[in-house]
């Protein structure tokens, strides 16, 4: 029995070109720039200076503030400069650039491939270790994981939800992780269950990955309390609120967090990083990135050091095709289009999608014909057709009354609109402006 | 490689477009058109083509010269308006009336509100009701089906089943006498009866409905709610006094009900957005239709019913909202 | 006269009189005592409800004028000094003369001067474009060209020039209501002192990058070289973050800085052509800028910078 969420959702063609291709190691590049704004929250404090020698896994930036995360060097070598680098939005952000010399890892990192199932650390030690290792949500949201583990007073988690849905078209990094690192992910799940003191965990996987469901189910038999649940393919199933509703049939209240319905959600990549941090002492400095595109010669799933420029990944996959029109960090539904190839990979980069020029530009905009398709597909029960003109006319207070802040920016409305209207663009603008209004109200 | 395109997400779009939806509606209207040609011959072709062409031309002229914007006739919406207008006109209508109706439909019904997407009333119905009220004689003489395929203006005329019913009830005939005058239900189902060009064949319109549902151009809520309401309402009257009221099947198969329920009421622009609102709208149309047919002065009331409920659509959209995710939290 | 007509007239008149009495009573009972000067003040105002004064509309501003003891802090930008003098006369208060201002676009990065490095294909709104990207040219400070300023202008004083992709202010229509300044997400538009004959000298750039980077992304960017600062006899020019700024109050419009600028980032507008001697240094510049507003003078100046 496959489950799914209600209401809304769409079925974009999934284009999982790299499904089933093994994880390939990408050679360490000659130079990396590690941005400081890789996660949601405050930028960490930089600990190194120009000219310092660093090793792989060495702490180079210390968390600062409540919501923040540590950053570790992904290479060994010399710090070339600590200054601002243009990030994928074109604005300059703080980053540490390191010239690679050799590949010398910190000694305390356990590099053996042997599986360690025994969890020796206590609850608070697990949280501290996760904090030290700089782990953030690796599905793309990049919320610092240790903050998620500190539950608000009086709240108790009942379920640990593991997100293996990977509903985003093209991307297969979670899929390949489930196939290759199932036991590590399951151990990571057990660690999180211990840290949160829950005895039930559900792994949700969409049924376009039947091999992953089968493999995970077999492996999960050896882990008490962990259950694998297949899900009907529907975008945006990997959205936190949608996944919780599909798996345990509870609706996260508007403006609330998953913990309000007793659930905590982690992505499979985050759980693998947790396993490596707790059992292998390895901080988060590399991740699997799907490099994909219909015209790419050799697409694949690459193990990439954080800070590697996108161009190195594309070179490893056969170079940029002639007809490239758009390069997206992430998948086509929620990913962000890159403005240059020199942008570094960060902790939340789950994929690089290369689109041909014929699929890069939007189609001509027509009048809204009130076909109500946007309402039908909205997973949050909003009315995008109504919100967009409000955004255009800057009626942000009225937008707030129409539940705009619940929008998860999945893009289903813009995807389905037969008039090609930029619905989400204006709703997103509305969210930004409503946040400003709310901040002003507080002061 | 050229320069990279940057844009906000999503970067994917499904292949649906306004013109594809409109051409889908035209395809769905095809069976009814063919049946109409079979029964009424050349008249159907003349008025359908005239209405289609004049709607498109008027829209182009208004957009080009009055509104001074880029004409968007290629989206097919003017063509749909034209066909729908022709479908609710008798096939022996003079061409100049068809052109006048098209002009009113496009200029008053659609462009005066700002064009596609802004009109509160179904443009085809605006044109049809304008003609019906201004030229009642021409609009209420229908050619007889299957008599002469090449007669246009001079086709021999007869009455529609609804007219026969209305007049006979007025003159005090009993139901069993009236039933002898109207066609058999199976004839009405396939379209062998007097009526407007596209409204006669319930079977062909239902095929169109199935196509629209499969293509996901419309949802089932509006047609089903209208037909169900008419069936239930007339069913109650029939059961209470069978001698004075025809059975529900007669109401479902006669007049423009099927055409209205499937193609007119489901017009995107003028119908509610949310399933619950669609039910209110559909039930409203059903009730008003039956009230006009049974108690009103006109034998047919679908067009008026749809226009009246069109006026309520903004109100329905304002107060009927979709169920917000996480508003009423149901745990468990 | 038939009785029906008579009854009709009587009953209608009776209804009318009754209604008039009720209306009169209600009007007396619920009369809002309002300063009659409020309407006078409101009539004196332009009535555009532009919000440039900081109030929601003209009536709110009139109320504020009535309430406050003096008009020091109150000013109606579209109406200007004349309107304020009128208001002051009505209220018998002192109006403060203010220098008239005009909106100035501080970006000259037209299509010709600023190469596109990306192709933006989202909704045509500066607010949306800037919330996600720095822009589709190499300059993260420059004009995005989607015309948010044009849409907010109540006075039809600002337009996009399709050839340059930059907005152009019509000085005569601009009332300095501040709406475009608020709307611009890049803070390019500045309200500057309006000089005689609409003459203007300003640095038409807000790029704070180092000279080399700025110049690479835009050929008319201010590179912060400081030549203008040195030549200015009135100490009106300051350089901060590799960007020159001419203080509109201190500037005496002497034009000495303009020929000094190596990138033509300083614009002089509505000046007569320069004399022969100066024209040798800058062959085209003076003559062109004298007649042409912001947009085209840079295009003409380009051959010289190569």
Report what the structure shows.
The complex is a heterotrimer of chains A (443), B (332) and C (306). Chain A is 28% helix and 20% strand. Chain A has 13 helices and 17 strands. Chain A has helices at 123-132, 145-149, 173-180, 182-196, 210-220, 240-248, 268-280, 310-316, 373-377, 384-392, 396-401, 412-416, 423-442; strands spanning 23-25, 31-35, 45-46, 53-54, 59-62, 71-72, 77-86, 92-100, 159-164, 200-206, 226-231, 263-267, 286-292, 300-305, 324-329, 336-337, 351-356. In chain A, helix 1 crosses helix 4 and helix 3 runs parallel beside helix 5 (210-220). Chain A has four domains: 26-100, OB fold (Dihydrolipoamide Acetyltransferase, E2P) (Beta Barrel), CATH 2.40.50; 123-280, 3-Layer(aba) Sandwich (Rossmann fold); 297-359; 373-442, no CATH class. Chain A is of the alpha/beta class and 443 residues long. In chain A, the strands form four sheets. A six-stranded mixed beta sheet of chain A has the order 1-14-13-17-15-16. Chain B has two domains: 18-139, no CATH class; 160-318, no CATH class. Chain B contains 15 helices and three strands. Chain B has helices at residues 18-40, 42-66, 77-87, 95-108, 123-134, 136-139, 161-170, 175-181, 185-190, 202-214, 221-240, 248-253, 257-264, 275-295, 302-319; strands spanning 4-6, 142-143, 157-158. Chain B has a two-stranded antiparallel ribbon. In chain B, helix 1 (18-40) runs antiparallel to helix 2 and helix 4 packs across helix 5 (123-134). Chain C has 306 residues and is of the alpha+beta class. Chain C has two domains: 36-91, 3-methyladenine DNA Glycosylase II, Chain A, domain 3 (Orthogonal Bundle), CATH 1.10.15; 101-305, Alpha-Beta Plaits (2-Layer Sandwich), CATH 3.30.70.20. Chain C has 13 helices and nine strands. Chain C has helices spanning 3-29, 36-44, 58-67, 80-91, 126-132, 148-152, 179-183, 211-217, 227-231, 257-260, 276-281, 285-291, 294-305, and strands at residues 101-105, 118-120, 158-161, 166-169, 189-193, 200-203, 237-240, 243-246, 266-269. In chain C, helix 2 (36-44) packs across helix 3 and helix 2 (36-44) packs antiparallel against helix 4. At the A-B interface, strand 15, strand 16, helix 9, helix 12 and helix 13 of A face strand 1 and helix 1 of B. Strand 1 (4-6) of chain B pairs parallel with strand 2 of chain C, so a sheet runs across the interface.
């Amino acid at each position: 029995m496959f489950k799914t969420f209600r209401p809304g959702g769409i079925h974009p063609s999934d284009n999982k070109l790299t499904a089933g291709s093994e994880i390939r190691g990408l050679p360490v590049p000659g130079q990396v720039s590690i941005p400081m704004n890789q996660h949601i929250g405050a930028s960490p404090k930089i600990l190194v200076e120009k000219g310092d020698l660093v090793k792989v896994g060495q702490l180079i930036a210390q968390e600062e503030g409540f919501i923040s995360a540590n950053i570790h060097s992904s290479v060994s070598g010399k710090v070339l400069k600590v200054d601002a680098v243009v990030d994928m939005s074109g604005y300059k952000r703080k980053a540490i650039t390191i010239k690679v010399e050799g590949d010398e890892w910190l000694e305390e990192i356990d590099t053996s491939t042997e599986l360690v199932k025994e969890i020796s650390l206590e609850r608070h030690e697990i949280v501290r270790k996760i904090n030290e290792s700089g782990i953030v949500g690796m599905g793309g949201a990049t919320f610092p994981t240790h903050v998620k583990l500190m539950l608000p007073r009086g709240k108790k988690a009942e379920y640990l939800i593991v997100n293996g849905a990977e509903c985003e078209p093209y991307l297969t990094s979670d899929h390949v992780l489930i196939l290759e690192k199932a036991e590590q992910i399951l151990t990571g799940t057990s660690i999180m269950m211990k840290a949160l003191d829950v005895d039930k965990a559900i792994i949700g996987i969409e049924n376009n990955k039947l091999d992953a469901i089968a493999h995970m189910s077999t492996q999960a038999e050896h882990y008490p309390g962990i259950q694998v649940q297949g899900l009907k393919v529907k975008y945006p199933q990997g959205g936190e609120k949608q996944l919780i509703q599909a798996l345990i049939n509870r609706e996260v209240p508007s403006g609330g967090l998953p913990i309000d319905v007793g659930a905590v959600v982690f992505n499979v990549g985050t759980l693998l990083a947790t396993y490596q941090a707790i059992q292998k002492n390895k901080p988060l400095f590399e991740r699997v990135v799907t490099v994909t595109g219909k015209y790419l010669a050799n697409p694949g799933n690459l193990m990439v050091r954080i800070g590697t420029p996108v161009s190195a990944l594309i070179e490893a996959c056969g170079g940029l095709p002639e007809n490239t029109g758009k390069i997206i960090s992430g998948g086509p539904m929620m990913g962000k289009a890159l403005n240059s190839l020199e942008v570094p990979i960060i902790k939340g980069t789950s994929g690089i999608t290369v689109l041909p020029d014929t699929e890069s530009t939007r189609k001509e905009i027509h009048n809204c014909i009130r076909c109500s398709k946007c309402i039908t597909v909205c997973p949050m029960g909003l009315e995008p057709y109504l919100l967009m003109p409000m955004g255009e006319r800057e009626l942000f207070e009225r937008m707030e009354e129409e539940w705009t802040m619940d929008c998860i920016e999945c893009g289903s409305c813009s995807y389905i609109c037969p008039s090609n209207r930029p619905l989400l663009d204006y709703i997103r603008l509305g969210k930004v402006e409503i946040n400003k209004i709310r901040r002003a109200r507080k002061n | 490689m050229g320069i990279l395109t940057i844009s906000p997400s999503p970067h994917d779009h499904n292949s649906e477009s306004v013109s594809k939806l409109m051409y889908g509606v035209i395809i769905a209207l095809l069976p009814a058109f063919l049946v109409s040609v079979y029964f009424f011959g050349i008249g159907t072709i003349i008025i359908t083509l005239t209405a289609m062409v004049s709607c498109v031309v008027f829209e182009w002229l208004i957009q080009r010269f009055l509104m001074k914007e880029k004409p968007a006739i290629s989206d097919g919406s003017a063509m749909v308006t034209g066909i729908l207008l022709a479908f609710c006109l008798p096939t022996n209508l003079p061409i100049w009336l068809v052109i006048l109706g098209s002009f009113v439909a496009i200029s008053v019904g659609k462009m005066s509100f700002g064009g596609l997407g802004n009109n509160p009333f179904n443009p085809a119905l605006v044109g049809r009701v304008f003609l019906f009220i201004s030229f009642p004689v021409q609009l209420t003489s229908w050619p007889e089906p299957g008599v002469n395929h090449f007669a246009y203006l001079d086709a021999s005329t007869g009455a529609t089943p609804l007219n026969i019913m209305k007049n006979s009830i007025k003159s005090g005939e009993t139901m069993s006498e009236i039933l002898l005058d109207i066609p058999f239900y199976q004839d009405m189902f396939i379209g062998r009866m007097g009526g407007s060009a596209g409204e006669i064949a319930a079977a062909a319109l239902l095929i169109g409905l199935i196509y629209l549902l499969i293509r996901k151009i419309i949802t089932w809520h509006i047609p089903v709610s209208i037909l169900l309401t008419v069936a239930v309402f007339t069913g109650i009257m029939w059961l209470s006094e069978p001698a004075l009221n025809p059975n529900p099947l007669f109401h479902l198969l006669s007049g423009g009900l099927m055409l209205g329920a499937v193609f007119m009421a489901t017009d995107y622009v003028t119908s509610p957005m949310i399933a619950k609102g669609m039910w209110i709208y559909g039930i409203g149309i059903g009730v008003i239709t039956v009230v006009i047919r049974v108690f009103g002065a006109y034998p047919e009331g679908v067009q008026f019913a749809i226009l009246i409920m069109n006026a309520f659509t903004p109100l329905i959209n304002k107060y009927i909202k979709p169920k917000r995710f996480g508003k009423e939290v149901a745990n468990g | 006269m038939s009785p029906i007509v008579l009854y009709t007239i009587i009953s209608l008149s009776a209804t009318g009189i009754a209604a008039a009495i009720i209306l009169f009573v209600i009007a007396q009972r619920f009369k809002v005592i309002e300063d009659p000067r409020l309407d006078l003040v409101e009539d004196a105002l332009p009535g555009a409800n532009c919000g440039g004064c900081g109030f929601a509309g003209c009536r709110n501003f009139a109320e504020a004028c009535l309430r406050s003891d003096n008009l020091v802090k109150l000013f109606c930008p579209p109406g200007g000094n004349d309107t304020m003098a009128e208001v002051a006369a009505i209220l018998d208060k002192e109006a403060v003369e203010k220098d008239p201002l005009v909106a100035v676009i501080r970006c000259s990065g037209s299509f010709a001067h600023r190469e596109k490095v990306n192709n933006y294909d989202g909704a045509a709104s500066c607010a949306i474009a800037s919330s996600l990207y720095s822009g589709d040219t190499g300059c993260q400070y420059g004009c995005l060209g989607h015309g948010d300023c044009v849409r907010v202008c109540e006075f039809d004083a600002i337009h996009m020039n399709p050839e340059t992709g930059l907005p152009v202010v019509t000085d005569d229509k601009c009332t300095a209501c501040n709406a475009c300044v608020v709307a611009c997400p890049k803070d390019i538009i500045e309200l500057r002192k309006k000089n005689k004959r609409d003459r203007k000298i300003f640095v038409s750039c807000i790029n704070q990058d180092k000279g080399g980077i700025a110049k690479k992304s835009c050929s008319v960017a201010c590179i912060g070289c400081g030549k203008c600062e040195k030549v200015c006899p009135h100490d009106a020019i300051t350089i901060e973050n590799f960007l020159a700024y001419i203080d509109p109050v201190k500037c005496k419009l002497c034009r000495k800085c303009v020929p000094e600028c190596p990138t033509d980032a300083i614009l002089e507008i509505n000046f007569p052509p320069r004399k022969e001697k100066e024209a040798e240094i800058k062959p085209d510049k003076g003559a062109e800028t004298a007649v042409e507003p912001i947009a085209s003078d840079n295009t003409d100046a380009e051959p010289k910078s190569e």
